[in-house]
């Protein structure tokens, strides 16, 4: 991530966001990879894909709590049209509704 940021800024671009994409079904392996990326380049947020399964919900909490990186976008399907801005309130309400 450090190299990507440097390449972008060498071209005089202003980098305001550095998002990393994480497959929500990867579990602890995904968190370990995200931890390495966050240490290398200080991402401003995360994009979690494959969040349509029940196991993916824990990744939202892990990314936010363990890494301190906000989840900004989620993918709940297989196409670009299935990406949406992450709404923490709706996420928690969805979890609570399943109790």
Overall description:
The protein is α/β, with parallel strands linked by helices and 99 residues long. The chain has a single domain (16-97), classed as Rossmann fold (3-Layer(aba) Sandwich), CATH 3.40.50.300. The protein is 45% helix and 18% strand. The chain is built from 4 helices and 4 strands; from the N terminus they run H-E-H-E-H-E-E-H. Strands 1-2-3-4 form a 4-stranded mixed beta sheet, with helices on one face. It is globular, with a radius of gyration of 14 Å.
Compute the number of helices.
Answer: 4
CATH homologous superfamily?
P-loop containing nucleotide triphosphate hydrolases
Helicity range: 40-55%
What CATH calls the topology is Rossmann fold
- Secondary structure category: alpha/beta
Please state the oligomeric state of the protein chains shown.
single chain
Instruction: Note the overall shape.
Output: globular
In the sheet with the most strands, the strands line up as 1-2-3-4
* Structural Rg: 14 Å
Report on the biggest sheet.
4 strands, mixed
String of helices and strands: HEHEHEEH
Low-confidence regions: none
- How many structural domains in the coordinates? 1
- Roughly how many Å apart are the termini? 39 Å
Q: Kindly report the average pLDDT value.
A: 80
Name given to the CATH architecture? 3-Layer(aba) Sandwich
DSSP strand content: 15-25%
- Tell me, what is the CATH class? Alpha Beta
Q: How many beta-strand elements?
A: 4
